[in-house]
Amino acid sequence: MARKPVIAGNWKMNKTPDEAVAFVRELTPMIGEFDDVERVVAPTFLALAAVAAELRGSSVKAASQDAHWETSGAYTSQVSASMLAPHVDYAIIGHSECRAFLNETDENVNRKAKAILAAGLKPIVAVGESLEQNEAGETVPFVRSQVRAALDGLAPDDMSRVVIAYEPIWAIGTGRSASGEIADDIIKTAVRDTVSELFGMDAAEEVRIQYGGSVKPENMEEFMAQPNIDGALVGGASLVANDFAALIEIASRVKGRRSANA
Ligand code: PGA
Question: Is 178 close to ligand 1, i.e. is its CB under 6 Å away?
Fold first, then answer.
């Protein structure tokens, strides 16, 4: 079964609501035809409703950059998955920046994944090792433990709606990326095989796994050519319409319905 590639642009703390709306107006005509690739943009919470309204009727989807696990209550600064549900299809959780700066824990990532699924949305669960862990040869056991914790208590059926983004922290925003082959190997052994152990082979075949970390038009083909990489979570290059559109065109060419690999 072919997995539909999913390319998500994580805008992080960039673009005001006006800038975000102007950007999607520029972007959507450039990427509208590539409906064999799921195309997702993740603005800040502040810009999300305006971007979602602009995207209504288009095949481009919105994502939030986080989602709280409770539906409402005394959680200053937070936005719940159920509040996000009318506006987005996806919610990114567990990003390494949130793990580093906002104390995101594996336990909370798991709670959020459950709440996002319960709200009818799709979680994009980010995992990945630090440079020190990578150099100490701890990548695979560490990423496996993040995947196990994030997916704890989910059901095999949920895997058709879960996206996992493998993002080595040392590759995020640094211009350094893992090679396609190494990323594919880690994604296979640390992510897909873990999903298989937890939920069975069918679920592991179905779950979509992105690579993230300095993805750009120049290296996109190398990642998309890998059998276990089903898309990309993109920071910097997603802020430039031409670059993001180029990534989507490459994903469609290499992995979409026109490709030999589809
Ligand atoms: P980058 O960010 O593409 O700028 O490295 C990726 C991410 O943080 O998701």
Answer: no
